[in-house]
Amino acid sequence: MVNPTALLTARVRAQDGPGCELVQDGFLAEPVSAWTSLAFVVAGVVVLVRARREGHRAHDADTSDHRPSARPHPLAGYAALVAAVGIGSFVQHGPDPVWSDLAHDLPLLVVLAYVGADAAADLTGRRPAWWWWAGPTLALVPLILLAPRAGDLAQVGVAVVAVALTVRRAVIRPRQRRRIATALALLAVGGTVGTLSRAGWPLCDPSSPLQGHAVWHVLAATALVVLAPTIGLSSHPPPRARR
Predict the structure, then answer these.
(1) Helices vs strands, H then E, count in the chain
(2) Residue 221 near residue 43, CB atoms below 8 Å
(3) Partner of 133 for a Cys bridge, out of 92, 114, 142, 239, CB 3.0 to 4.6 A?
(4) pTM above the 0.90 mark?
């Protein structure tokens, strides 16, 4: 039987958070959301392994120079950031220390800024500099700490810009359109399910083992894996449009 007091606590807490999962005593406050957060860690590992495999294939195909490249693969940083999203989310949904908001929001903000900066570099034909994504992220840290609601809105703004730039990238990269469309569709479905699962919304059931926010974790992590091959395309000129 569900403890009515715990259920009420879960609903109150859900008003301030993304989900409505029943809050548990112990190390994991929201077990389902905590464990599914690790989908981002798995996604980061998958991206890194695939990038290394592609790097080895490219190296084997290049018979003119067998020296290893000193330049790090652009997906290495991306993979690390994606994994960091999972760690930060696990911290918030698990032990939930006082600094959990920063642990959760900062990696997600960095990933959004990174994707947007990479798309902007592709659109302008330039290599992205680290400050393209680090600058906006650092500028928003005080907002996340001092005004969490405003920080959430700022993240939405960064997400909108990143999506717009990525859609524009699909225009100049016809071969990447299906991949980008698939990634955005996964994010859209995950975001819809997550939103409808907030406290007071139709899909919210605090005692259910199937949580909408957990679904968001899995679909968002999958979308980042699908999107990964588009990262770093600024080093390759886009195909010329047919006249």
Answers:
(1) 9, 0
(2) yes
(3) 114
(4) no
